[in-house]
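User: Some background: our group keeps a shared notebook of sequences we're curious about, and every so often someone picks one and asks for a predicted structure to add to the entry. Today it's my turn. The entry only has the sequence so far, pasted here. Could you supply the structure so I can complete it?
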Amino acid sequence: MNRDANKRSVLRWIHIIFGIPILGYIYSPFEDLQYYARSIRFVFVPVIVLSGFWMWKGHVIRRLISKRSLSIGKSIQN
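Assistant: Of course. Here's the predicted structure to add to the notebook entry:
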């Protein structure tokens, strides 16, 4: 297994694992929502959003970062 496939697999599992508590939040009784709300809003949803964006458009972000580092390196050398 190459390095990129391993990264994708890890991101997929993070996305799946962090999605399980959201299902519990959705299907839990209304009285119990106050106990889950803070962790769902500030931990689980941001992790799922970031991992989803990274799986979807990570190649574009990596390309932009590598171009920026190359241009910075060239300007330092000149």
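Suggested note for the entry: The CA atoms of residues 25 and 36 lie 7 Å apart. The radius of gyration is 18 Å.
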